[in-house]
Amino acid sequence: MILSVASGKGGTGKTLIATSLALALSEKDKVQLLDCDVEEPNVDIFIRSNVTQSYPVFIPIPKVDEAKCNYCGKCAEVCAYNAIAVVNKKVLIFPDLCHGCGACSYLCPESAITEEGQEIGIVEKGNSGNIELIQGRLTIGQLMAPPIIREVKKHVSFKTEVIIDVSPGTSCPVVEAIKGSDFCLLVTEPTPFGLNDLSLAVEVVRELGIPCGVVINRAGIGDGKVEEYCGKQNIPVLLTIPLDTRIASFYSRGVPLVNGIPEWRGRFVKLFEEIKQKATLPGSPLSLRGLSRAKRGNSAKQSS
Amino acid sequence: MKEVVVLSGKGGTGKTSIVASFAALAQSKVLADCDVDAADLYLLLQPQTKQEHEFWSGQTAYIDNEKCNECGLCQEVCRFGAIENYLVDPISCEGCGFCFQICPVDAITMRENMSGHWFVSETRYGPLVHARLGIAQENSGKLVALVRQNAKHIAEEGNLGYIIVDGPPGIGCAVISSLSGADLALLITEPTLSGMHDLDRVLELCRYFGIPALVCINKYDINEKNSRQIESYCANQKVEVVSLIPFDNVVTEALVNGLPVVEFSDGRVKQEIYNLWRKVSERLTP
Fold first, then answer.
1. Which residue of B lies nearest to A7 if distances are taken between CA atoms?
2. How much is the average pLDDT of B49-53?
3. With contacts defined as CB-CB under 8 Å, which chain A residues touch B102?
4. Which residues of B touch A203 (CB under 8 A)?
5. Fold of A2-29+160-303
6. pLDDT tens digits along A45-62
7. Nearest to B222 among A138, A145, A252 (CB)
8. Is B145 left (phi over 0), alpha (psi -120 to 50) or beta?
9. What dotted CATH number matches A59-119?
10. Does the domain at residues B57-114 carry the CATH identifier 3.30.70.20?
11. What value of ipTM does the predicted structure carry?
């Protein structure tokens, strides 16, 4: 099963939940943990893996051979991102705008465009006990997180359980990270901000046809409106974590919850089992595995 | 007119609560919520919408099955894996138009995306420009740029002193779009290892774009040892720590009551945020 942990609002406890789940499961089995919050990857603060492999991620940027170019302007015309412009017998390239689609080089009538890789970040693989950690890290100043997330997700194992830590928000990096998951766990807190961002995240996972459940963190602060919302929307609240200064203190020091307070281990194992049960219900993405993605997508849309 | 953008790297450190309090404290300002994919500032400022605009951005490919001869060239060239069985997955499509350009039977069209909305609103603290990115839409960086542009326009028209920007978490596209060209970045961190790690990256981003930064440690007393470490880190980096805000449940209570915390309670948090705004505004107007 591929389980992603997302939230909408930042700082609600995604990494706390993802690391706790992975550690609790790793007592018995191998687990894969992917840190897809490539702008601010924090999983390894808690997992402390031995990095065994590290490699750069590139996106292909056009390079123009001025000797071949006749400044026809085809490349600028086909570029949807305005990343290439032809002015006064000069071709200007704006690498920050380029998505690396390859249209310009393929369509250049003079074959004057080749591509060269621009490094936008790295992917690291490492181990900690039974956990295999794969994390991406966007280079400071680079704009595009999704290509790094795609690279991290290329490592998804179909032999072990996979847990994905997602970045906050609801835009492209979040969609890229949770796409293809069998279940998405949405972590929130019982405040108006938590509720507002949870409802946005729910819309995203529904758009993607992924079943979801909620974890309420810091229960006891705020109000009861998150539970009310989940009830109305028929979204299961799968775990509630109380506001507890011990939990906050362990978190602040980078100590995983299940190591700091071992009685949480069993609760996370149970949480995972419950999710797995829900994810294998008829019509869910996991039960449709083996079908092509397009068919799975159609089925998800029909069932929603 | 001076623009301060409030960032943090890590989410949930208190950006929006602090910006809402600045809204109540600052004179002559426009507010901009640049966290367009999880916009929360409006919950505390209770705006009345004056203008609503659609945000059209980017395109999605569409294959006409009547015309398609199933040659498969589009699938072959698409680098985003967005076409399978002659069907476009609109979520994966990045709108590059490569498939549209090369389709030998012109079966592919590109359709404009309605990617969200942006608003100009009035609040009892002054004008607010905010936005809502469409569900699973792209181009949040462009929407952020649009929000900032319009906030700037309002500030210029009204001869307002400050643009106060509530920024998104992270360091990527939307953050860069919120930060570039601002006069000052206020970085809100918390004394956790995650908060510290993320502060380091967002501070480096400010350097990369040449934006001066100030640091505020929120909930500093949840781990005072870590707070001292942040202070010495900032001293090494020659970045001023302008405020240490204690943890206090009044921040959440204010939020539940839909009020900026400085209007909700008279305690230490209010005093600290008051001092913080004084220091930020002093830095902006030397």
1. B38
2. 97
3. 106-107
4. 135
5. Rossmann fold (3.40.50)
6. 999 999 999 999 999 999
7. A252
8. alpha
9. 3.30.70.20
10. yes
11. 0.94
